[in-house]
Fold each of these.
Amino acid sequence: MFKLKTSRKRSFVVEVDGKEYSAPTAGELPTRWMDRLIGAYSIENEDKRGKAIWHFMYDLLCEYVGEDIVGDMNSDEFGALCDAWNAETEDADGATPGE
């Protein structure tokens, strides 16, 4: 019998308006999210790839931080949140998403 014990080693933790939220880094993503991330990065057209990555990040952060919070962020705030997630992923996994 095959037994599998799942674990989450590292998370991205962010505080927004005094409340903490946690999301998995790229290396810890559930397969449903990793499939979307791989799909976004595999798009050859640079403009379409950028849009797909943006939508991936928006959907991921809405799920883990909350759509009511992420949806109300301005573009600078959202960009800073994405940059922080990418930096944590690089620190935790040794590579940025897509590498």
Note: The mean pLDDT is 91.
Amino acid sequence: MDFIIKNENKIIFVILSVIVFIGIYLCFIGGYGSDEDTLPMIHVFEAKLNGGRFVSSRFTGNPVAELGIGFLSYFLGSFAANLATYFFLLFGLLIFYLSFNQNKSLIKINLFIFICLTSPILFFDNLEPVDYSWAFFFFSCGVFFLNKKLFELSILFFGLCIGARINYVLFVLIIILFYEFNEKISFRRRMSLFVASFIFGGLFYLPIWFDNSFGLSWLTAGRPTDQGLIGLLARFLYKVYISIGYISSFILLFFLFKEFRVIKYIKNIKVLLLLCLANLLIFFWIPAEFSYLQLFLVIISFIIFSLNNKKFIYLICAGNLLSWLIFVSPIKIIYLESEYCAPKNAISASFHINLEEGFYQKYLKSRDKIKCWVDGSTEKEIKILKGQSLK
């Protein structure tokens, strides 16, 4: 025990290094992943490259990530696209930390990133070509330059962030209006920064706006409203609980209640809590992918880190890592369709504790889901199945 206490920083560094390299390995073997949006995003780039046609991968499109992921996939293959997405998460976490904490100690930085990477949602959902970490990275850069009062650069990165995921426009508004500087910044100046960021980010969406005859229906998305408000609330609470962690959730609630008076002393806690609230409200509106909560999970990890309670931190991380190996589900969910490739549509749920495979095993098994969209009948589809460059 004395050895562990004396060498805890080295142990954290070693474990963190192992996690980082596991991520790189999974990027290498992961192929084009299990997200149904990946191939449509690649198609957007191919359509523009091979004729300049306008297509959109989803309702809003998110053009920056479509072009970036499409370019990497087309010319370099799945490993490059996966690795870029993963590195955007890692560097985004580093820059986010530097934007909100003045202690640049490598030990502190390692501990914060360690907390984040043990989260299975933050880790596994950013090992394949999706746009969540792209938006988060640009957002973190925007906050960093905002903190340094390099406003032109902050506008640039906030615009790219909005171009990568349009829902970040709300987060950009909150961070610009409520971020606390060492000196007072007028409301008028803050609003001018947001308007500039909004206009720059909005330029990426002009093609889809034109394509919809200046209508705004493309801003909507399919919502699971078939079970009404109660159904939305149930999905919301269950998925937030799972995202935080089935064990970590209880540990988090206990220590946040215990340390409630300390939380208010965290620098910029107001803007952090407002960002959390905004992210939760968006997720309540459409409680679909767990990764919609990524910014919320990063901020919760930062608050955990900022409480500076090592016992609390290690318990949270241990609970997160345990979920990699085994998942304890407190609810049995019945789905309308049972086929592997069919969209999951929950029709009922009941309290029933059972053991399931952990997130690591689920990730490995989900690598075959790409076969739901391609069967290898063409040369291009064979390349997709093998994770190769599509050029």
Note: Residues 265 and 307 are 9 Å apart (CA to CA).
